[in-house]
Specification:
Length: about 775
């Protein structure tokens, strides 16, 4: 829903209240503001009058205009707009004016003719598009004076506010509806537009129209008529409709759309000839159609479904002479249900309003429209109206003040509760002795059905920030379950991955079977394949996240990115089509952004860089050498990722041929089982307050001996006071032959005292003895 400050000001006095305050108030009462645009005309744009227009001697589409802007001499301006004409009032940008697009106006020559200024369109002034060509001014924006700066005209300098309405608030799908809520919050009266007094000599509508209706109709209707010679342009009306993104066809539909948007009353216009057969008098028949919708029938059949759609043949055009105006209201619940039941029927914009709740006070909308038409000299109004009113029993909500205050969590005075509800349009009867309120819900608030809804209305107007905060009392057992814990784990992993610097990428659950087979990935069994894939490229359930991540990385590299860290948390499917949740990573290109410390030349990503980042996401882990299970990874840089004693996935460099296939630089991937990353509840334990001591041992080991065997050997020996062991360096040289030098760090610490040097040396000797006896290795 889009509103403007000036349009709101016609329904509620906003003088002395800033637009920022209006937006804050709307947010406070639950009408969330999604955007605010301040539309301001630049300086040096003034009102001008086209004195004359002559064709350009050297250009068919240009005209040479003399425009009076209140200076001594008219300005000669070359204009290319097709709609420019002598006698028009126009917006003229003078020399030195800088338009919103950055164009600065200066004297120039166009095809040999001097041009001093520019006649502007609405879009060139930073306003929405209202027509093709220049913007022609009229007195709807205020009195027009030559040379008057447009930046001083309030009608053209407005604040446009976009509100994100929830579907249940159909009562706020109009300027008056929003103003009604705003008036309560700001404690200001809602303006009442007076109806025009019909002249005694007007022809009555009964002379040209009769109404016949079935008893089982659900809606209410008001019909009026007018005769049209011409409806003059109205730049303010066109501008406001453009600001709120409303669409219309003919001049009649423009005025009707304006009245509907202002009041919320659903109105349609019909060409009179649709209801005339051989008789001079038109007849409108209202009946239930076979699909359950209220329908309007004319001389040659159905012309509209009420609140749903209208036949194009009966719409008004600029050539229509006599126009029938229909205002209608139907229950939004029934319209929403009927709309769902009749999805095959084409609908128009009326269904959006009728299914959410339009304004039931039909006379309000018709009288507002008639006020607009009364100002048109080319329009003759018919007196009176034809009505069919369906009485709707108002909903009643009974609640006690004590119950209401308990819901809110704060004592709200009874008089204030009653005042708020009455100002919102509710009818309230209070039984003093019982402290019980009988609240009658107005027809325009179909969403209010119970005590909680009434409580919400009170809280909206009191203001959530004005409710005293109280500590939450949790008096029942935790409702957390396995699904919630899994959700928390997934959320935490995604947040940590983003914090480390990975960007989330989301892909389809489907993949190409041929591509998976090409890279040695076992997909779904043939008998469990998709029966009707959406495309040949997405013809099977994905068995890995990595392929999609590599494709995304490739696209980013081709777009000029030199560093692409991506992750995805999603489901994959095994051969039986059972699903598991995986966490996939890809890191391609440079290890960091170009910056001063790396002299603008960051090094490529390495296995250890990549493993370090993965560790920051999932916590403590270790890598163990393993053999690839598919053709995506390099056999020389491949490891299983171990969390505790459980293998949760793999981490590897992409195979050189795969990098070539995807046009990638050095790239590393990882895919982890999310269930294996779940952490048990942390039990705090006492830690030593005494310092630790460390020693480095350089061991001479066979090239084929893995660190995993060394670690297990040391752990199984249960060396006293040894708290931690990990590798820090690996050295190879020709002098060592088939051996390599592996340096490990040993950390020693006692829980109750500082270790003596002898105890540390004894522990080191025990480590070396264990390694020698078990693996046959020793110091270098």
């Amino acid at each position: 829903m889009i509103v403007t400050r000036a349009w709101l000001n016609e329904w509620i006095e906003l003088e002395g209240i800033s637009t920022q305050t209006v937006c804050e108030t709307l947010n406070a009462i639950g009408l969330e503001v999604d955007g605010l645009v301040e539309q301001r005309i630049p300086e040096k744009v003034v009102v001008g009058h086209v004195v004359s227009k002559t064709p350009h001697p050297d250009a068919q589409k240009l005209n040479v205009c003399l425009v009076n802007v209140g200076q001594k001499e008219p300005l000669q301006i070359v204009c290319g707009a097709a709609n420019v004409a002598q006698g028009q009032w126009v917006a003229v940008a003078l020399e030195g004016c800088i338009l919103p697009g950055g164009l600065e106006i200066a004297p120039t020559r166009l095809r040999g003719i001097d041009s001093n200024g520019m006649i502007c369109s609405s879009t060139e002034l930073g306003l929405p598009k209202i027509n093709e060509g220049i913007m022609v001014l009229d007195e709807s924006v205020g009195p027009l004076e030559l040379g008057q700066p447009l930046c001083e005209m309030e009608a053209l300098n407005d604040d446009v506010i976009e509100i994100g309405l929830t579907p249940n608030r159909g009562d706020c799908l109009s300027i008056r509806g929003v103003a009604r809520d705003l008036a309560v919050a700001l404690k200001r009266p809602l303006a009442q537009h007076k109806a025009i007094e019909e002249e005694d000599n007007l022809l009555g509508i009964g002379r040209i129209l009769s109404l016949h209706a079935e008893d089982k109709l659900e809606g209410s209707f008001v019909y009026k008529a007018f005769e049209k010679q011409a409806i003059k342009p109205n730049v303010l009306m066109e501008l406001r409709l453009a600001q709120v993104e409303a669409k219309f066809g003919s001049d009649i539909e423009r005025v009707l759309e304006y009245a509907t948007y202002a009041t919320g009353v659903l109105m349609r216009a019909y060409d009179y000839t649709c209801f005339v057969d051989t008789k001079e008098k038109a007849t409108i028949q209202l009946k239930k159609d076979s699909n359950g919708l209220d329908a309007v029938f004319g001389a040659h059949g159905r012309v509209a479904y009420v609140g749903f759609s209208q036949e194009s043949t009966c719409r008004t055009t600029n050539e229509s002479k006599i126009v029938i105006v229909e205002a209608n209201f139907s229950s939004p619940e029934s319209m929403a249900a009927l709309g769902a039941q009749n999805k095959t029927l084409s609908s128009d914009k009326h269904l959006y309003r009728s299914a959410r709740g339009s304004e039931p006070e039909l006379e309000l909308g018709v009288e507002y429209l008639w006020t607009l038409l009364h100002k048109e000299k080319g329009v003759s109004l018919y007196a009176g109206s034809q009505k069919l009113t369906k009485e709707h029993k108002p909903k009643m909500v009974i609640l006690s003040l004590e119950e209401l205050c308990a819901m809110i969590g704060q004592e709200i005075p009874k008089n204030r509760v009653v005042d708020i509800l009455k100002r919102l349009g509710f009818d309230v009867h209070v039984k003093v002795e019982q402290e019980v309120m009988h609240v009658s819900v107005p027809a325009f608030r179909h969403d209010v059905v119970n005590t909680q809804d009434v409580c919400e209305e009170i809280v909206r107007m009191v203001g959530i920030d004005n409710i005293t905060a109280k500590p939450f009392v949790f008096a029942e057992k935790s409702r957390a379950n396995a699904a919630y814990e899994h959700y928390k784990l997934r959320t935490a992993l995604r947040q940590k991955a983003a914090a480390v610097g990975f960007f989330e990428s989301v892909h389809y659950l489907f993949d190409e079977q041929k591509k998976q087979e090409h890279y040695g990935i076992n997909g779904v069994y043939k008998k469990r394949e998709l029966s009707n894939p959406i495309t040949n490229e997405l013809n099977t359930m994905r068995a890995t996240l990595v392929l999609h991540l590599l494709e995304s990385a490739s696209k980013n590299i081709k777009n000029g990115r030199k560093r692409v860290p991506l992750f995805e948390l999603g489901r994959v499917f095994d051969r039986s089509r059972d699903e598991t949740t995986k966490l996939g990573f890809v890191f391609s290109g440079e290890s960091e952004e170009a910056a001063l410390p790396n002299h603008g030349k960051p090094s490529p990503i390495t296995l250890m860089n990549f493993a370090s980042k993965i560790s920051q996401v999932i916590g403590h882990m270790r890598l163990e050498a393993a053999t690839p299970t598919n053709k995506l990874t390099s056999p020389y840089e491949y490891a299983n990722v171990m969390v505790g004693d459980v293998c949760v996935g793999f981490l590897a460099r992409v195979h050189a041929q795969v990098e070539k296939d995807f046009d990638l630089p050095r790239t590393y991937i990882a895919e982890l089982d999310v269930d294996g990353l779940a952490k048990e509840r942390v039990i705090a334990s006492e830690y030593s307050k005494f310092p630790s001591s460390s020693r480095d041992l350089s061991l001479l080991i066979p090239r084929t001996l893995s660190y995993q065997r060394i670690r297990l050997c040391i752990e199984e020996a249960k060396i006293a006071n040894l708290s931690q062991c990990y590798p820090i360096d690996r050295f190879e040289s020709a002098e060592l032959g088939e051996n390599v030098s592996l340096t490990i760090k040993l950390l020693f610490q006692h829980a109750e005292r500082t270790l003596e040097e002898k105890e540390i040396n004894d522990a080191i000797d025990a480590v070396l003895k264990t390694l020698n006896e078990t693996l046959g290795i020793g110091m270098r």
